[in-house]
Amino acid sequence: MSRNGPLALIFHALFIAFVLAPIVIVCVVAFTPEGYLSLPTNGPSLRWFRAIADYPEFVRAFRDSLWLAAISSTVAVLLAIPAALSIARYRFAGREAVLAFFMSPLMIPHVVLGIAFLRFFNIVGLGGTFLGLILSHIVIVMPFAVRLVLAASTGMDRAVEHAAVSLGASPFTTFRRVTLPLILPGVVSGWVLAFITSFDEVTMTVFIASPSTITLPVRMFLYIQDNIDPLVTSVSAALIFLTAIVMIVLDRVYGLDRLFIGAGR
């Protein structure tokens, strides 16, 4: 087994530092006691974390973003499973066109999608509604769900399914007890990536959101247009800490390797 040389290790260290530097700086600035963006040179302070409670708009937007991301990613995965299984198993006319159709939202700028959805939802009476947000987010996260479920479905050995059928299992039982566990890593990975994409989406959502359906990224974007205080950095740091805690809990309770790649513990 070859080992990485000193130059490779230095390159990897610099690359990791480059990736983590913005996150670390945001977290450090969030603890500043000053009323402007600065490093906490006078000692750390929780002033701007306490200030989050004074802005219920952020809390409400965070709750709406969670619901939006959870619903849109779940629906996208439920649609992606039959689509991916069909594309992976069967050779039919227009198969590549169907796959390209599911991947097409990746090729369209989100600004264009936002304007198109804004016009369409206003015509059908869904403008400014939470349902409109859900439908638009399903469209943009669908490619990620389809791609990862398709990757898990492509390498699946169908002989296991045939064995279950030969033993008397119904189609639904075969799917629930055999097929779904085999593609579960792709399903979970697709759901997580779709959730993150939906939660973080701002470019398209700006056009569709209304005062009653503003997501957290849009709320933060609107806030920094008129304010330069560190409140947004404290919100960002809180999200980073919350994400880290969730990942640690998942790793301790279930195991990230088992959850994402199906490895046993």
Per DSSP E runs of 2 or more residues, the count of β-strands stands at 0
Shape type: globular
Q: Strand percentage, roughly?
A: under 5%
Termini separation comes to 25 Å
Uncertain stretches of 5 or more adjacent residues: none
Tally of helical segments: 12
Gyration radius, to the nearest Å? 22 Å
Structural class assignment: mainly alpha
**What is the N-to-C succession of helices and strands?**
HHHHHHHHHHHH
Mean pLDDT: 86
Reported for the largest beta sheet, the result is:
none
- Estimate percent helicity: over 70%
Overview of the structural elements:
By secondary structure, the protein is mainly α. It contains 12 helices and no strands. The chain has helices spanning about 5-30, 45-50, 55-90, 95-105, 110-125, 130-155, 160-165, 170-200, 205-210, 215-225, 230-255, 255-260. Helix 3 runs parallel beside helix 6 (about 130-155). The protein is globular and about 70 Å long. The model has no long low-confidence stretch (mean pLDDT about 85).
Brief overview:
The chain has 265 residues and is mostly helical. The protein contains 12 helices and no strands.
Question: What are the key terms here?
Answer:
globular, mainly alpha, 265 residues
Write the layout of secondary structure elements.
Blueprint: H1 6-29, H2 47-50, H3 56-89, H4 95-103, H5 110-124, H6 130-154, H7 159-166, H8 171-200, H9 205-208, H10 216-226, H11 231-253, H12 256-261
Helix pairs in contact: 1-11, 3-6, 3-8, 3-10, 6-8, 7-8
